[in-house]
Write a structure and sequence with these properties.
285 residues; single chain; 14-stranded mixed sheet; globular
Length: 285
């Protein structure tokens, strides 16, 4: 009889604990979510300062850890398969650069950075559509996933020489902006590729609170208004949260610590404004 009562007591206690934990989780989610009043306020402030938002606000702001990445090591045969169609290359070292040369293409590596160019691809985009350029770039990226990891949806930018298609890394559904591929696609195919890649080791340290997206937008607004050449109006068409290498990080270290940040993209500007999500300060890249 006593054993039966003890089991009932344990079951009731576990139910109460689950109820309490569910309540705490709900409170935490509410505390990390932007309110409707905050959303209305930031839209109004931006509008009063000539800034229009053509994208949704990020409303969830859970605490985030830093992310640890490391300098990559490359295999010659893999690089030849990915960038030279398995053609054999000659390799030379020049300072801290390693240069791979094929018959028509060249790849230069320096630490985590890489630059590839194919000389027999004509510049220009005559007859090439945005969709076709994206498909060409995506086909190349599909062949790199096993070696360079996972990347998110492409950002396609029209330029005079062709279409630039940018991809940013993804780790456990979170953006890793410091890992990127930027491909220049012309009427004859891919002419140039610029990339930066560091394998992700995992999360590093305790989770910390981050600034809300409305705070990041206010920081951007103040920075934008400082530039006297940017009179008139601006349009924000994209805002993202992810990881990037901050100014305080050293690329010479074997392990690099990335911090969460917001990227705010304006129409008619190719480079985003970057706001450190921990400090809510502009990052000068």
């Amino acid at each position: 009889m006593e054993w039966g009562n003890a089991k009932k007591f344990v079951i009731i206690l576990l139910v109460l604990i689950n109820v309490v934990l569910a309540g705490l989780n709900y409170q935490q989610r509410q505390g990390n979510t932007m309110t409707a009043a905050q959303e209305r306020a930031i839209f109004e402030v931006l509008s009063q300062n000539g800034i229009t938002m053509y994208t949704d606000l990020l409303t969830e702001h859970s605490p985030m850890s830093r992310l640890a990445v490391e300098i990559p090591s490359y295999n010659k045969e893999t690089l030849e398969r990915l960038f030279f169609g398995s053609e054999k290359t000659t390799v030379t070292a020049k300072g801290d650069q390693t240069i791979y040369r094929g018959q028509d293409a060249m790849l230069v590596l320096k630490g985590a950075c890489g630059y590839w160019e194919k000389g027999n691809i004509a510049m220009g985009k005559e007859g090439l559509t945005r969709g076709e350029a994206q498909r060409i770039a995506e086909k190349f990226m599909d062949g790199t996933e096993h070696f360079f990891g996972t990347y998110g949806e492409p950002i396609v930018i029209e330029e005079a020489e062709g279409f630039r298609v940018n991809f940013y890394g993804v780790y456990k559904r979170e953006n890793v902006f410091s890992n990127y591929f930027s491909l220049l696609v012309t009427q004859d195919g891919i002419r140039k590729i610029t990339f930066n890649y560091c394998p992700v080791r995992g999360y590093n340290g305790e989770k910390q609170d981050i600034s809300y997206s409305d705070e990041a937008l206010l920081t951007f607004m103040r920075e934008w208004k400082k530039d006297e050449t940017k009179k008139g109006e601006a349009t924000i068409y994209r805002i993202e949260l992810g990881y990037d290498q901050m100014e305080s990080s050293s690329a010479d270290m074997a392990v690099i610590s990335l911090e969460p940040c917001y990227r705010i993209y304006l129409m008619d500007e190719t480079e985003p404004y970057i706001v450190n999500a921990y400090t809510c300060q502009i990052v000068n890249k």
